Amino acid sequence: MVNTVIPLADLRYAAQAPRVPQHAAPPMGVLADRLGRPLRDLRISVTDRCNFRCSYCMPKEVFDSSYKFLPQSSLLSFEEITRAARIFVAHGVVKLRLTGGEPLLRKNVEALIGQLAALRTPSGEPLDITLTTNGSLLERKARALREAGLRRVTVSLDALDDAVFRRMNDVDFPVEQVLRGVDAALQAGLAPLKINMVVKRGTNDHEIVPLARHVRERWGKAVVLRFIEYMDVGATNGWRMDEVLPSREVVHRLSEAFPLEPLAASAPGETAERWRYRDGGGEVGVISSVTQAFCGDCNRARLSTEGKLFLCLFASRGHDLRALLRGTGPEGQPWTDAQVAAAIGLIWNEREDRYSALRGADQAEPGSGERRVEMHYIGG
Ligand code: SAM
Ligand code: SF4
Ligand code: SF4
Q: For residue 18, how many C-alpha atoms fall within 13 Å in the half-sphere facing its CB?
């Protein structure tokens, strides 16, 4: 199943120290990078650990018992995450997504959700808080997550067939448990719920129509199924273009089983192209991360488990925000929120990442050619 697994060069410690400007202007609620893109969406990785070993993300051969996950002392505390989130919100972030690794493995993640749910935008609105999970612990945790203030959840599910699913998670985890997790999430009111399926040609592409049928029949409009092109993230999954099934092929196969019609994008920066079943059976989406770059309006930043800020999923280096959250200025005093905000503002203002657009244009890999960080570390 895994083709060529590439040994991991540890890039987790490669980070730039942020510059703190001398005169820190207060955040104005909107930032623009060099390509005029605002910052609206912050993805926060709360753990680098996972109980699955999906070959496209954490191949077993690399993430084995000798792999050193981050020590507890390196992780941002809930207070540090909440402080960082508050500063990002002052810069215009309106959406927070908790991810990982497997976010439900972070002890007491509900307490973090509670703290984040109390934040408000500069105009007093609550934030759109969501979480991406492999669903393995959802049946047990759905109610507590909802009670803590989580609004929505995205569940990753790559196959309906139990044997294919067990092979893809590579820890022999049964699909039924994830399906029950989705039931529990809907019962708890975590809706609308999204299911994401990463499609690998030759591995699970024969599961597209069966999974779509199951979602329609079991959950109807309450669940939106989305198909994601297998991406060349990280440096260990041995990615090959011939294993990418282009989204247009997904739409073609689906529409042969269930006629579809296109829907308009729901929000600027929306990554999914949306479709509706003509018979009123609900909505599906395709995310063409490889064949149709959406860098032009990418408004997302990622905060790693240990507080490094990444401006692109394909970046090699982060910016060490934890150094500001924990450290002190030249006179030994802790950095203030205004100073941390000003440093983040500078970082975003200088951003010009657009990896997928350059890949699509067949240009050489941007940047210095350094290897990219792993997805389980910065979050998807
Ligand atoms: N463990 C959680 C999960 O699987 O939902 C959250 C973290 S996971 C890194 C976030 C998302 O990234 C998942 O939906 C996963 O399928 C997706 N992902 C990981 N590696 C990928 C790849 N190479 N191509 C496309 N999507 C990928
Ligand atoms: Fe774990 Fe999610 Fe990566 Fe799979 S995709 S290995 S569930 S972090
Ligand atoms: Fe955003 Fe980077 Fe993905 Fe482009 S490649 S959409 S800049 S995360």
A: 32
Q: Is residue 1 part of a domain?
A: no
Question: Which residue in 109, 95, 108, 105 sits closest to 58, CA to CA?
Answer: 105
What Å distances lie between residue 305 and 71, 218, 240, 346, 357, CA to CA?
Answer: 11, 35, 28, 22, 27
- Nearest Cα to 205, choosing from 154, 242, 258? 242
The count of domains in the chain is 1
- Boundaries of domain holding 174: 8-378
Q: Which numbered ligand comes closest to the C-alpha of 233?
A: 1
Cα angle: 238, vertex 11, 75; to 5 degrees: 115
Strand, helix or coil at 39? coil
Pocket of ligand 3 contains residue 288 by CB under 6 Å: no
Query: Could you tell me where the beta strands, DSSP code E, fall in 170-210?
Result: 193-199
**Residue 334 half-sphere exposure toward CB, CA atoms < 13 A:** 5
Q: Give domain status of residue 75, yes or no.
A: yes
How far apart, in whole angstroms, are the C-alpha atoms of residue 333 and residue 141?
40
Q: Is the pLDDT of residue 366 over 60?
A: no
2 inside domain? no
Structure tokens at 372: 């990219």
> Domain containing 115 — which CATH number?
3.20.20.70
What DSSP designation does 295 have?
Answer: G
pTM exceeding the 0.70 threshold for the entire prediction:
yes
| Averaged confidence pLDDT in the chain | 91
- Is the CB of 354 within 6 Å of ligand 3? yes
Query: What is the CB neighbour count within 10 angstroms for residue 125?
Result: 11
In a domain, residue 3? The reply is: no
Note the ligand closest to the C-alpha atom of 33.
Answer: 3
Q: Give the SS3 label for residue 99.
A: strand
Q: Quote the ligand 2 centre to 261 CA distance (angstroms).
A: 31
**Strand pairing category for 223-229 and 193-199:** parallel
- Nearest residue by C-alpha to atom 17 in ligand 1: 380
Instruction: Say whether pLDDT at 113 is over 70.
Output: yes
233 lines ligand 2 (CB under 6 A): no
